[in-house]
Amino acid sequence: MAELPLIHRARVHADRICIRAGGTTFAYDELLSASARVASALLGDRRDLEERRVGFLVPPGFEHVAVQWGIWRAGGVAVPLAPSHPKRELRHTMRDAGASVVVVHPGYADAGQVLADGADGRLLPTPDALATEPGALPEVDETRRAMIVYTSGTTGNPKGVVTTHASLEAQVTSLITAWEWTADDRVLLALPLHHIHGIVNVLTCALWSGARCDILARFDAQVVWDRITSGALTLFMAVPTIYRKLIAAWDAASTDRQPAMSAACRGLRLMVSGSAALPVSVFERWRDITGHALLERYGMTEIGMGLSAPLHGERVPGSVGTPLPGVEARLVDGDGVAVTPGRPGEIEIRGPGVFLEYWGRPEETAGAFHDGWFRTGDIGVLDHGRYRIVGRQSVDIINTGGFNVSALEIEEVLRMHPAIDECAVVGVPDSDLGERVCAAVELRPGHRLTLEGLRVWAKQHLAVYKIPRELCPTVLPRNAMGKIMKRSISPMFGPGDDDGDVDS
Ligand code: AMP
C-alpha cells in the first residue's frame, strides 16, 4: 500500500473543490500540496514520524485539515486540541498523549508556547509548516495509529481514544454507505474539530467522498441560516443544542424571511442530529418549520457511529434506529447475558470501526471490552426492532427508593412544561432513597416556577417517584459540543431541602 486511501482518493478528485472557509475555496490538489508541506516540516531529517504524537491547535478551516493530513502523511498520530479549552487542560492532553510537537496557528501563539514548554517539545507555527518545501513522504500502513481524540469527559475524566487509519476508514465508509454520500454533496461544518462528530461524520466523510465541506470557524445561528438559504448545501449535521438555537433564530426572524428559510431547508437532502439525545419537542418543531424529520444517530468517540435511523423510511422521534453497515449491536444485563426485546440493557458494539485502545491505559482498555464487544456504558431498549437510548448507566439511570428511572425520560416530560426551556435531571445521593430525583432547569424568558407548582403539574405526567424533589434554576453548564455537563449538575443540589422558588 503506497498511500493512505484518503490521500489516494483526493488525487482522483484533484480539481474539485474540497473546502470552502472564510469565503475562499480550495481544491483537493491544494490540500494535497499543503499537507505534503506540513508533513515535510514535521519530518525534518526523519523518514517517518513512526507514530509520534503531534498536537495541533488550529481553528477549523483549510489549514486545520492541511495539518491533520500532514501529520498522517508523515506517519504521525494527530492529537487535535480544542481552542476553546483552557491552557491547563490542553497541557494535560499534550502530556497524556506524550506529544513532543505542537503545530499552532499564529492566533494561538501564546497558548502554543505554553504547550511546547510544558511538553518539552517543539513548536511549529502553521505559516512555517506551510512554507516548507515538500520532500519524500513515508508509506503509512492502515493498521497504524492515526488519531487520539480525548473523550468529552461529561461523565468521567477525559481519556485518549486511539483510532487507526483502518478503524477511521471503517467508520467513514459505514456512514457513506448508509447516508449515500456522493462527490456532489456539499456539507456545512459548524462543529468543533476536536470531536468525532465534526472530524468523522462531517469532514472526513466529505473528503473521502470527493465532496465539498463548507467550514465555519465557529457556530453562529445567523451564519448557518445564511449558508442554508444560499442554496449551496445538500447536507447538514449538528447536535440538538444547535437545532434549538436554529429554531430560536427562525422564531426571531421576520415573517418575510421565515418562508425563505423554511423553503431553503427543503433543498437539503438530509439533516442529521446526534451526540446527545434529541428532545422529541425539537424533532417535532424542526419538522414543522422545515419539513425535515431529523435523522437521529447514536455514536461515541470509541466506536464512531453505531446506530442510525434510516435514510429512507420512517424516522421515529426518540429512536436511534438500527445498526449501521459493518456494526453489530446487542443489549446485555449486568452479567453480560443478552436481554429480551423490550427490556433495558447495556449497549455493546462490535465491528471494524471500534477504537484500538485508551492511550496509555491498558487496564481501562481491557475493562472496556467483554468477549470482544465494546461496553458503551449506555443503556438502550429494543422497541419494535429499533433502538431507543435510555441514558448513560453512570449518570442517567437513577435508583430512587428501589426504582430505576431514566433521567432522559423525565427530562422529556419536563420540557413539556410551559415555563421550562431546557433541563437536566440527576440523581443526588440520599440517605432514605439511595438517590433522589433533582432537576436543574433553564426557564423561558418571563416565566416563573416553584417546586410546588412543578410537582403538582408533573403528577399528571409522571409516576410519583419520578417527580423531582428539588428544583434549581440555572444556566446549564455545557461543553464545547453543547452537551450538558451532568457532572457539574449534582453539586447544585445540597443535602437539605430547597423550595426552589424562581424567576427567570
Ligand atoms: P462522545 O464520545 O463525546 O461522542 O459521547 C458519546 C455519548 O453521547 C454516548 O455514549 C451517549 O451517551 C451520548 N449520545 C450520542 N448520541 C446520542 C443519541 N442520539 N442519543 C442519546 N445519547 C447519545
Structural notes for this entry:
It is a single chain. With 504 residues, this protein is an alpha/beta fold. 32% of the residues lie in helices and 27% in strands. Among the domains are: 136 residues, Rossmann fold (3-Layer(aba) Sandwich); 96 residues, ANL, C-terminal domain (GMP Synthetase, Chain A, domain 3, 2-Layer Sandwich), CATH 3.30.300.30. The chain has a nine-stranded mixed sheet with strand order 2-1-10-9-11-12-13-14-15. Strands 16, 17, 19, 20 and 21 form a five-stranded antiparallel sheet that branches. A hairpin with a 3-residue loop joins strand 24 and strand 25. It is globular. 48% of the residues are buried. The structure holds adenosine monophosphate. Adenosine monophosphate (AMP) binds next to strand 13, strand 20 and strand 21. Adenosine monophosphate binds next to strand 13, strand 20 and strand 21.
> What is the architecture of the domain at 5-140 at the second tier of CATH?
3-Layer(aba) Sandwich
The outline comes out as globular
Structural class: alpha/beta
What is the alpha-carbon Rg in Å? 23 Å
Give a short account of the largest sheet: 9 strands, mixed
The level 1 CATH classification of the domain at 5-140 is Alpha Beta
CATH fold topology of the domain at 5-140? Rossmann fold
The number of distinct helices, counting runs of at least 4 residues, comes to 16
Distance between the termini: 61 Å
Fraction in helix? 25-40%
Share in β-strands: 25-35%
